[in-house]
Amino acid sequence: MDIKKQLKKHFNFSFEKEYLSFLEKQNGLFLYESDIYCEIPFDVDDGFISFVELFGLDLDNENQDLKTQNQELKGEIKSIKKPFFLGEDGGGNFYLQDMDSFKIYYWDRTLIHMDTNYTFKEEIGNLYFVCDGFERFLKLINKYTKGE
After folding, report:
1. SS3 state at 31
2. What's the pLDDT score for residue 9?
3. Which ranges constitute the DSSP H helices of the chain?
4. DSSP 24-55
5. What distances in angstroms separate CA 41 from CA 6, 93, 94, one per listed residue?
6. Residue 2: count of CB within 10 angstroms of its CB
7. From CA 92, how far away is CA 97, in angstroms rounded?
């Protein structure tokens, strides 16, 4: 079964072609080596938000699996009608996509950046707008990943 059919079977969303292509080629992205890290510049207390992984489909590790993570987190975000959880920062905070607009958000679930004077107009509670679309998000990850 191809990626598009698998996603359609489990999620009632239309996905961006760039995201489908990414899953077909890589089925996730995991930065777990101590000398590899990604810090995306962002207007928060320490000047960046971390990135560790993009979830894959049907992975043995449920913490990295799209279906498991989306099932577990479903219902926790009320301000976006169709949230799709893409990945996380390694500290219990998640990256998600609004499947109506395809905007990418960082969800500060643990409230690590709660004291921040965050002023972007896209802020919704502890959801912070990162960029428009998966392709731009992937470019940010590629640009700000450091290490060998």
Report:
1. coil
2. 87
3. 3-10, 17-25, 66-73, 134-144
4. HHTS-EE--STT-EEEEE-SSTTSEEEE-EE-
5. 34, 16, 16
6. 10
7. 17
What is the C-alpha to C-alpha distance for residues 55 and 116, in angstroms, rounded to an integer? 27
The one-character DSSP state at 18 is H
Q: What percent of the chain shows pLDDT beyond 90? A: 66
Structure tokens at 28: 């996730």
How far apart CA 39 and CA 54 sit, in angstroms, is: 14
Q: What is the chain's alpha carbon radius of gyration, rounded to the nearest angstrom?
A: 15
Q: With helix as H, strand as E and coil as C, how does 110-140 read?
A: CCCCCCCCCCCCCCECCEEEEEECHHHHHHH
* Distance separating alpha carbons of residues 133 and 146, to the nearest angstrom: 22
| CA distance readout (Å), 136 to 19, 49, 102 | 11, 16, 11
pLDDT, tens only, 38-87: 999 998 878 899 999 999 999 999 999 999 999 999 899 988 999 999 99
Residue recorded with tokens 């707008």:
129
Do the Cβ atoms of 47 and 40 come closer than 8 Å? no
Whole-number pLDDT of residue 70: 97
CB 125 within 8 A of CB 96: no
